[in-house]
Write a structure and sequence with these properties.
With about 325 residues, this protein is of the alpha/beta class. Helices cover about 25% and strands about 25% of the residues. It folds into two domains: about 150 residues, Medium-chain alcohol dehydrogenases, catalytic domain (Quinone Oxidoreductase, Chain A, domain 1), CATH 3.90.180; about 150 residues, Rossmann fold, CATH 3.40.50.720. The structure holds NADP nicotinamide-adenine-dinucleotide phosphate.
């Protein structure tokens, strides 16, 4: 019988999740029943929002229960299939959890075509984070030709795609991120019009200089005080896309925007969205993005960190340290 190594939630974290919040188990893995597919994890997606799903309470999706495997996107290889659409050896992605082998209904899996992009990109640019950039921009921000779009966590998985898509739509893209190296990547390789390090002592002055006509769209991934600062440059009828708030996920109390009344003065809008609402349009969006990748107009980069299932919390910690550029994934090393 196949043995499966799993990472399960042991208790609700306080602040940042640490190793002791989880337990590692070794369990026999049953083979798939009709309609199911068994997948060996090759890459596990590392997402800041996973921290919010470890809390008690309600969210847009089910919280991880105590004792549950953490529900995260995974890319891997089919080892056994009870579904006619999948065969052993197929590469797929799906919500397969923090474990070496994930079992899912085949209808919920996506086949990864490696002739379009390598497997990790199916968790990034062609995965949920790339799709988040696509739908957040198209459905909420709706940038017009010549408008200025400011993206926070711009060198991250969602942000790096959002800025490039803004450019493809004819807008100016200004990235905001946490290091000069990240800034150089955004302007040098991804074609952002400007990139600013929010740690700079004169960040607001630099933001003013980079947004002479003020800001039309903010694609916000971090929230907190940084969003307040950017808010000060919002223009008339500006749109703030509330994609996420990475700076707040490990906090026990959320810092909300101070100057929200400017929304009235500016006739502006702040609107959130959740990617899962666009599920029936994922395939079409992927096709469009794959076309831009082929043309060299959309570039993706993955930050691949090797680790066993037990290393998942420490890899998540590294994402919060701002170490990564592009989409962070953990390449799964089998447990001895
Ligand atoms: N709405 C949706 O449906 C949806 C779907 C997927 C993701 N999201 C959201 O999209 C956002 C980006 O996710 P991602 O997967 O692309 O992550 P990511 O940007 O690749 O990684 C997180 C980045 O956030 C920055 N960061 C970390 N702590 C911070 C802090 N305290 N203050 C400011 N910045 C901080 C770091 O970059 P720096 O070095 O630049 O600080 C870090 O690299 C998250 O908020 C996530 O929840 C939303």
């Amino acid at each position: 019988m196949l043995m499966n190594t799993r990472l399960r939630l042991a208790r609700r974290p306080r602040g940042e999740a640490v190793n002791d919040d989880f337990t590692i188990t070794q369990e026999p893995q049953p083979l798939p029943s009709a309609g199911e597919v068994l997948v060996r994890a090759e890459y596990i997606s590392i997402d800041p929002s996973v921290r919010t799903h470890l809390n008690a309470g309600q969210s847009y999706r089910a919280m991880v229960g105590i004792g549950d495997v953490v529900d995260v996107p995974v890319a891997g290889e089919v080892v056994a299939s009870g579904h006619p659409g999948f065969a052993a050896g197929d590469k797929v992605t799906g919500m397969l959890g923090t474990q070496e082998y994930g079992l899912a209904q085949g209808d919920l899996l996506t086949k990864a075509d490696l002739s379009i992009a390598p497997l990790p990109t199916w968790l990034g640019g062609l995965g949920l984070t790339g799709l988040t950039a696509f739908f957040g921009l198209d459905e909420v921000g709706k940038p017009k030709l010549g408008e200025t779009v400011v993206v926070t966590a711009a060198s991250g998985a969602v942000g790096s795609v959002a800025g490039q898509l803004a450019r493809i739509k004819g807008a100016r893209a200004v990235g905001v991120c946490g290091s000069d190296e990240k800034c150089r990547w955004l302007t040098g390789e991804l074609g952002f019009d400007a990139a600013l390090n929010y740690r700079s002592p004169d960040f607001y002055g630099e933001l003013k200089a980079a947004t002479p006509d003020r800001i039309d769209v903010v694609f916000d991934n971090v929230g907190g005080p940084l969003l307040d600062t950017i808010f000060r440059r919002l223009g008339m009828r500006g749109r703030i896309i509330v994609c996420g708030a990475t700076s707040q996920y490990n906090e026990n109390e959320i810092y909300g925007p101070k100057n929200y009344l400017a929304l009235a003065t500016l006739r502006a809008r702040m609107e959130g969205f959740i990617i899962f609402d666009y599920e029936n349009r994922y395939a079409a969006a992927r096709q469009e993005m794959a076309g831009w990748m082929k043309e060299g107009r959309l570039r993706c980069r993955e930050n691949i960190i090797d680790g066993t299932i037990a290393d998942y919390p420490s890899v998540l910690h590294r994402l919060y340290q701002g170490e990564s550029i592009g989409k962070t994934v953990m390449r799964v090393t089998p447990t001895d």
